[in-house]
Amino acid sequence: MLLDENNMAVHSDNFHFEPARSEAATKVVRVQPEARTFGIPTIIWGSMVASYALFFLGLVAGTGHDGRALFMIAISMLYAVMYFGTAFALNSLSGSGRNEKSQWIKGKFDTFTGRMSFSAVYGQMLVVPIVFALFGLGIAIIRFAVM
């Protein structure tokens, strides 16, 4: 399919790759600094870390009797620590990102598609971590119910 003769990439002689020459193309645009925190409140970060901690505790409680399972859980924990540690390290860097304007405007989170309430942001960001936590706790409950 990629090398089909009807594919536009095959007919590259039909395209002209000359840069557009207009005043807009020569205008200098000021580069914006990187937003390191994404404007996310610490309660959301804390809830996310707590959800993953509950997930891993549930897995350890449910499958902690097997050494191979513990090894795999330890590897998964290291990945989670690396994920959150990288975000923490990048957020801790000093620089122009510290003076960024807040994305919270009048109690709403400003996004590309419009403003969202705190509960909408909380729900969208934490639905997967909370389901992971419930899954881990469910494994532990099933393990202790079967024993």
Characterization of the model:
The structure is a single chain. This protein has 147 residues and is mainly alpha-helical. Helices cover 55% and strands 7% of the residues. The chain has 4 helices and 3 strands, in the order H-H-H-E-E-E-H. It has helices at 23-26, 42-63, 67-92, 118-146, and strands at 104-105, 108-111, 114-117. A 3-stranded antiparallel sheet has the order 1-2-3. Strand 2 (108-111) and strand 3 (114-117) form a beta hairpin. Helix 2 (42-63) runs parallel beside helix 4 (118-146). The model has no long low-confidence stretch (mean pLDDT 78).
What is this structure's SSE topology?
Elements: H1 23-26, H2 42-63, H3 67-92, E1 104-105, E2 108-111, E3 114-117, H4 118-146
